[in-house]
Amino acid sequence: MKFVLAHDKDQSMKRSRFSEEQIIGILKEHEAGVSVADLCRKHGVSDASIYKWRAKFGGMEVSEAKRLKALEDENTRLKRLLADAMLDNVALKDLLGKKW
Question: Which SUPFAM superfamilies does its entry note (predicted)?
Answer without folding.
Answer: Homeodomain-like (SSF46689)
